[in-house]
């Protein structure tokens, strides 16, 4: 998994269903380039895009893609499925820093919201293709993404609370409330056809955290 601009791109690990390893690499075409191109094609044109279409965009043969990912399903899962490691967990593990907790919480929540929105987009395409949720990354070794996410946010909030920078409350309930609300917003924008832009999403996050802060801030910084 990696970042492309402000977008989170999801790259499943080599143990993923339908993934055939690293055979037949064409010099100059990285796995990352293939996944980025495949994700773009599937998100803009739907699950009906063929592996040959993706290969043409990259200037390689579709055999190259099959050598690396085994099947079209394997390619789709690599491009659109759940990550093995949640990318923003490391930033939470390193904090909080000395800036106001409110500012940091808004910042982290915006990153999490953008991640969830893109994750929902990819999973929707996999669902449309009839790919079982059991194949989209839940079988990763180690803790599944949602467990990693809840643990990291809970721990970050607890550290802030232990330093007297957050009001006394059940931090696990607070963390699950934040993550649940951000997932709910992503679901709402996708299923209900609510117009969404990066700026609109960030404003929603700011308003949501501002609402929570009335209860958890207690005048703290």
Describe the structure.
The protein has helices at 31-45, 51-58, 62-69, 72-80, 89-93, 101-128, 145-162, 171-191, 198-216; strands spanning 2-4, 7-9. With 221 residues, it is mostly helical. It folds into 2 domains: 2-80, Orthogonal Bundle (Arc Repressor Mutant, subunit A), CATH 1.10.10; 89-216. Strands 1-2 form a two-stranded antiparallel sheet. The model is unreliable at 1-6 and 9-26 (pLDDT under 50). Residues 149-210 form the Transcriptional regulator TetR C-terminal Proteobacteria type domain.
Task: Please report the distance between the alpha carbons of the first and last residues.
Answer: 34 Å
Number of helices, where a helix is a run of at least 4 consecutive DSSP H or I residues: 9
Structural class: mainly alpha
Beta-strand residue fraction: under 5%
Radius of gyration equals: 19 Å
What series of H and E elements makes up the topology? EEHHHHHHHHH
As laid out across the biggest beta sheet, the strand order is: 1-2
Tell how many strands the DSSP assignment holds.
Answer: 2
Work out the helicity level: 55-70%
In this structure, how is the largest beta sheet organized?
2 strands, antiparallel
> What best-fitting shape do the alpha-carbon axes yield?
elongated
The residue-averaged pLDDT reads 81
Overall number of domains: 2
Organism: Singulisphaera acidiphila (strain ATCC BAA-1392 / DSM 18658 / VKM B-2454 / MOB10)
Pfam families: TetR_C_7, TetR_N
Protein name: Transcriptional regulator
Domain HTH tetR-type: 34-78
């Amino acid at each position: 998994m990696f970042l492309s601009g402000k977008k989170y791109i999801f790259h499943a690990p080599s143990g993923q269903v339908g993934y055939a390893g690293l055979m037949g690499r064409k010099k100059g075409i990285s796995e990352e380039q293939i996944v980025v191109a495949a994700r773009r094609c599937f998100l803009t044109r739907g699950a009906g895009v063929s592996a040959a279409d993706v290969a043409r965009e990259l200037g390689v043969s579709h055999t190259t893609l099959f050598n690396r990912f085994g099947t079209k399903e394997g390619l789709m899962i690599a491009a659109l499925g759940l990550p093995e490691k949640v990318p923003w967990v490391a930033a939470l593990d390193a904090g909080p820093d000395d800036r106001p907790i409110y500012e940091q919480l808004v910042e982290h929540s915006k990153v999490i919201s953008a991640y969830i929105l893109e994750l929902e987009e990819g999973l929707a395409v996999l669902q449309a293709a009839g790919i079982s949720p059991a194949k989209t990354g839940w079988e990763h070794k180690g803790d599944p993404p949602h467990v990693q996410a809840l643990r990291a946010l809970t721990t970050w909030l607890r550290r802030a609370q232990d330093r007297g920078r957050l009001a006394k409350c059940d931090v696990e309930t607070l963390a699950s409330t934040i993550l649940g609300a951000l997932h709910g917003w992503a679901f709402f924008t996708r299923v209900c056809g609510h117009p969404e832009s990066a700026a609109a999403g960030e404003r929603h996050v700011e308003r949501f955290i501002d609402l929570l802060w009335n209860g958890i801030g207690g005048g703290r910084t």
